Amino acid sequence: MTSRPHADEPRRRLVVVGSGMAATRLVEELVARRAPARMDVTVLGDEEVAPYNRILLSAVLEGSHRTEALTLRSPEWYAAHGVDLRLGARVLGIDRQRKDVMLVDGTLVEYDVLVLATGSIPSLPPIRGLVRMNGSLHEAVHAFRSLADCERLVSALPYSRRAVVVGGGLLGLQVARALGARGIATEVVEGADHLLHQQLSAPAARILARDLKRLGVAVYTGARAVRLVDGPNGTALRLDNGYALDTDLVVLTAGGRPSTALARGAGLEVRRGIVVDDRLASVTDPSVHALGDCAETVAADGRGRTTGFVPPAWEQAGILAGVLCDEDVTYDGSRIVARLRATDLDVAVLGDAAAEVAAGGEVVEVANPVSGSHRRLVVRDGRIVAATLVGDLSRVGLITQHFDRRTVLGSHEPGRLLMPERTGGDTDRAVGAAGPLPDDTEVCACAGVTAGRIRACSSLEQVRDTTRATTGCGGCASTVRQLLSSRPALATKGS
User: What contacts 40, CB < 8 A, 6 or more positions away?
Assistant: First the structure.
């Protein structure tokens, strides 16, 4: 039995550095456990705006979402739940001996437990001409990491006709599709031999490239941008294959790396990210934790793993909240789920397909280039350990469910899972000729929310507030609305 703290016993001071999606989820999990009633929670965010959904920045760029719709939690919400949110509070350094952090304005914030949720920072590719002699970026060049970046790019659109996106990863494709939807002639440059090379096989990537071309976005793979030049006809981006792409905008989405400068300065062990154990505590100092993009977990074989996706970051947040509230929980780094959030482009990735194939996994694959679909499972010991789906996501909910639950499948089941729905319904449809989605079917991969939990809510606002569905990649929004609209009307009294 846990003893109650004495009334005069000092409250633990928890300081969270960062106010992004992982940090916000951590605070939500702590609030759900009523932790602010037992400890002082302070969140230090270096941006001046309330925490927001970075995944949906491309939707703001596209024009389908307003900026205010991205807010995850308002400052009033933090105050109402006893959490001290400080915006515009950039941390200069950490003193682990004194157990405090110093802000750039000289303010010291003391802690008993420190959580680093510092995210990632963009990498500047080695392209000559990106940076002016005075150290500033060329006026045509835009990063795309923050709300300020997005707003700057949106403000440049009325004066632009052409854009080049450097980087063919998930973020790059989202940005390219958003610019194309705005009527900007857009080209994507990717140094690898195909798009999403870390997630997709070459045949699946070819289908994706064809879909982009159909939507008006040109793709150059196996080519690297080497120089940005100004000429009499405007700005051009030169590639190493001899091509020169005339452009008004250059958007950099080619890679990012964990933000670890604070951790390095504090003497914590850092490889690619901040090295943490299965309780997400630094292997150097157990009073310091890390989660999200900046954290690096280490597998049993010694390989480190960092993640840039929402679902694993949110899973980490739930585990870490349990750790901070003295629950007996550990993190095994199992949930890797990613969705491409872009209009008319459908891609879902579960697990690490390349690693699982190398470990002996068997590939089950169904492709139809004519219809633009490619579906691939990696199965080991009868369980789905990885999957990539392009163009047809009608079975993604069921496949994700089997992936998460490690269901042992029969020999014919993987093949049947890859066959398209006969009704040709909408992705993860709520109701169709085959009937409604079962309550235990996962609808929101980011937050792990089932159809039954959605049906238990009375409004979209309640869904967002109590389950956080639709607040990650946004890919489940249409299904959530269908589930809510199909809820049976409540019987009136006396009927």
Answer: 11, 12, 13, 14, 84
